């Protein structure tokens, strides 16, 4: 079971990833899940959630997109449903209806397209498809969220009575309004509404002349509001009908609540499913900010990150238009631990965090900012020691805290662990701390753990230099400008550029010189050697780039020259052929002209025909020779092509044969082969063409196939027929 601590997640800033991702959720429960996201606890679960995310991403390329998954939480409604005899409010039914309809649409969609989204379809399988909730709510509540008139026969009658009563009130009030207005008893506003009752606006001097109930007056007292007695009977009928309506609605809502009560668990499933889809959708939308993708997941213990970015850094830099530098990082059984050294502010910690954060995101089912050729595996444990670890609460120094951390590392590390340690061994005496750090590193290596550490300790750099599975690396640094290049270079330790950086920051040279005298000469020489190596490597890299560029340019120029030369050669050949043809025609014309002259002189037709026939036969003889020559050349070309093809086939077969021989040797399979002799009919193993052995040369048999001969290793031949 995979267990990654909260400390590791905080060290690698994963909570900030979750916070940013939660902003892409469209439901409250989805946001809650995004904020609480953690790496999944087994490999099967990681695979499943990664495939879900990849499927949702691929849906953008399909004609019919995944349906909307938005919904309002029904948690409060579920609480009320769990209370006996409690009744839901009208608004809750609208939310439940929306939740049920949305889920049903998803269930039908993924059933239809399960061949495209097998993992998303699998998520819907535990959920029962039913239209009972939707049908029942829709039979009582309209699309505006109000109770339908025909929800029950009783409600239909009551609302009919209400409409009749309202009609009577309006009719009788209109008559009273017209009557008292003609008498001049009403104010200019004529009427008003008090407590939802239409009243006449009567001037105070005429209030006793209007029959009805006084329901109030204006602030000044000049107007008295009177309900005319003509409307009072109808108003009482309306009040009674509205009371009956409220009672009937309560009965309907209670019955509807009781109907929904058995579906509480299903409603919880609906919410959980749609919030899970919301989380998956937010992973895909968030990944668009950093061009996230799913790398190749390998069963082997190997991580190869190509063009890996720190997602938080990349998103922030993209907002302000600043360049972010990708890193290529690789861990495998031959490169088990990477020791990154070099000056501060060079990008060591960011590189370390990039590797860890990308791994955490992958194991949380998220797409990651790497090149598509990257390969990744999963780890059971990811242990980190990053940042200032001084514990005020526990009265521990940085080093004491780090030692406690190391004890935890040593206890938990195994061959399925990834450890990431920033500034390894610091916090105490450099010599003693370095020695202890070296011992810790030896234990991590012995336990086959994968890891990346950053350090300034020379003894750790030396250890990495001496151990083939522990690899030195450094962050490139321009030794002239003292500016970081943010590029990880494997295979070489990095100089701290301590004195160089100090000088760049204005520390007097005299003080730097005094400091150098206080340090062991060997240490300075070692650090200086590393710095020189880095400078030389930078120069070599630049030279290689220039040489590569020059070589490419020369190659392109040579290709152009070869092409021009080929065209010129073709033209020369065509001109030569044309010239030869013209010369032949001129010679032929001269001969015909000579024969014509003879005929002109002697008028001998028989001689004329004889001479012309001789010329034609001679030309035809040349044509036959030319045709044979061309056919011979063509046959030679075909034989050369066949021979070349045969050689290629033989090379492939020879390669396969060697592989087969190796596998047979591994299995200790021995077979006796007949001794081949000159004149034997043989064929290459797994081949069809049969040839005869002419002779043996240097452990190879010269086989004659009729049109061509070839040399083949005796071990590749099998006997077809013995020579007589």
Features:
single chain; 724 residues; MutS, DNA mismatch repair protein, Chain A, domain 3; Rossmann fold; 55% helix
Describe the structure.
- With 724 residues, this protein is an alpha/beta fold.
- Helices cover 55% and strands 15% of the residues.
- The chain has helices spanning 6-11, 14-22, 28-35, 43-58, 75-81, 90-112, 118-124, 132-140, 153-183, 229-260, 264-287, 311-320, 348-362, 398-412, 430-446, 458-466, 498-504, 509-518, 521-602, 605-666; strands spanning 186-194, 197-203, 212-217, 223-228, 296-297, 303-308, 327-331, 337-341, 375-376, 381-385, 417-421, 450-454, 470-478, 483-490, 681-684, 690-697, 700-704, 709-713, 717-721.
- The strands form five sheets. The protein has a six-stranded mixed β-sheet with strand order 10-11-12-8-13-14, sandwiched between helices. A five-stranded antiparallel β-sheet has the order 18-17-16-15-19.
- Strand 11, helix 15 and strand 12 form a beta-alpha-beta unit.
- Helix 2 runs antiparallel to helix 3 (28-35) and helix 8 (132-140) runs antiparallel to helix 10 (229-260).
- The chain is extended, with a radius of gyration of 47 Å.
- The two termini are 73 Å apart.
- Residues 390-395, 522-526 and 666-671 have low confidence and may be disordered.
What's a concise summary of this model?
By secondary structure, this protein is α/β, with parallel strands linked by helices.
């Amino acid at each position: 079971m995979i267990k990654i601590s909260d400390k590791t997640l905080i060290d690698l800033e994963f909570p900030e990833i979750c916070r940013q991702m939660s902003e892409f959720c469209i439901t409250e429960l989805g946001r809650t899940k995004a904020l609480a996201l953690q790496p999944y606890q087994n490999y099967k679960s990681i695979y499943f959630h990664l495939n879900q995310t990849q499927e949702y991403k691929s849906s953008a390329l399909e004609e019919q997109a995944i349906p909307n998954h938005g919904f309002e939480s029904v948690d409060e409604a579920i609480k009320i449903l769990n209370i006996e005899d409690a009744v839901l409010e009208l608004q809750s039914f609208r939310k439940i209806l929306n939740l049920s309809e949305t889920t049903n649409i998803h269930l039908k969609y993924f059933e239809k397209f399960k061949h495209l989204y097998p993992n998303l379809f699998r998520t819907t399988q535990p959920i029962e498809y039913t239209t009972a909730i939707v049908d029942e709510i829709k039979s009582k509540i309209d699309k505006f969220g109000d109770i339908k008139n025909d929800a029950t026969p009783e409600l239909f009658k009551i609302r009919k009575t209400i409409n009749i009563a309202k009609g009577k009130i309006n009719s009788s009030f209109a008559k009273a309004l017209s009557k008292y207005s003609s008498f001049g008893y009403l104010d200019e506003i004529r009427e008003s509404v008090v407590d939802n009752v239409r009243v006449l606006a009567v001037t105070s001097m005429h209030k006793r002349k209007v029959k009805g109930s006084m329901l109030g007056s204006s602030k000044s007292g000049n107007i008295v509001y009177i309900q005319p007695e003509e409307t009072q009977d109808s108003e009482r009928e309306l009040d009674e009908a509205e009371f009956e309506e409220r009672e009937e609605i309560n009965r309907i809502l209670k019955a509807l609540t009781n109907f929904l009560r058995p579906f509480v668990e299903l409603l919880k499933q609906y919410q959980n499913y749609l919030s899970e889809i919301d989380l998956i959708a937010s992973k895909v939308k968030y990944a668009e900010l950093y061009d996230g993708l799913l790398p190749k997941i390998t069963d082997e213990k190997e991580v190869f990150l190509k063009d890996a970015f720190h997602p938080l850094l990349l998103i922030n830099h993209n907002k302000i238009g600043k360049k972010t530098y990708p890193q290529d990082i690789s861990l495998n059984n031959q490169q088990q631990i990477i020791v990154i050294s070099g000056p501060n502010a060079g990008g060591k910690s960011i590189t370390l965090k990039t590797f860890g954060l990308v791994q955490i995101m992958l194991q949380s089912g998220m797409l990651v900012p790497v090149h598509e050729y990257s390969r990744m595996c999963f780890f059971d444990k990811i242990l980190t020691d990053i940042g200032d670890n001084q514990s005020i609460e526990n009265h521990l120094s940085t080093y004491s805290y780090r030692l406690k951390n190391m004890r935890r590392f040593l206890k938990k590390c195994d061959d399925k662990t990834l450890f990431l340690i920033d500034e390894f061994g610091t916090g105490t005496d450099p010599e003693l701390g370095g020695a202890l750090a070296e011992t810790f590193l030896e234990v991590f290596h012995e336990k086959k753990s994968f890891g990346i550490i950053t350090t300034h300790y020379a003894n750790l750099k030396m250890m990495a230099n001496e151990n083939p599975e522990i690899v030195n690396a450094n962050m490139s640094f321009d030794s002239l400008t003292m500016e970081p290049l943010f590029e990880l270079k494997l295979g070489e330790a990095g100089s701290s550029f301590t004195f160089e950086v100090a000088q760049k920051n204005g520390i007097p040279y005299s003080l730097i010189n005094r400091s150098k005298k206080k340090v062991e000469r060997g240490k300075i020489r070692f650090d200086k050697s590393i710095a020189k190596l880095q400078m030389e490597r930078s120069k070599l890299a630049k030279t290689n780039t220039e040489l590569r560029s020059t070589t490419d340019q020369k190659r392109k120029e040579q290709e152009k020259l070869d092409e021009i030369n080929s065209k010129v050669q073709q033209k020369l050949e065509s001109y030569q052929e044309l010239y030869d043809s013209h010369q032949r025609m001129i010679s032929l014309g001269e001969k015909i002209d000579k024969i014509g002259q003879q005929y002109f002189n002697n008028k001998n037709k028989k001689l004329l025909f004889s001479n012309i026939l001789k010329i034609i036969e001679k030309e035809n003889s040349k044509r036959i020779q030319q045709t044979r020559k061309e056919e011979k050349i063509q046959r030679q070309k075909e034989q050369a092509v066949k021979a070349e093809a045969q050689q290629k086939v033989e090379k492939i077969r020879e390669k396969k044969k060697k592989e087969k021989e190796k596998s047979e040797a591994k299995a200790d399979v021995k077979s006796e082969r007949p001794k081949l002799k000159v004149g034997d009919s043989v064929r290459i193993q797994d081949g069809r063409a049969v040839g005869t052995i002419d002779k043996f040369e240097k452990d190879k048999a010269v086989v004659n196939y009729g049109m061509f001969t070839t040399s083949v290793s005796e071990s590749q031949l099998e006997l077809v027929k013995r020579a007589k």
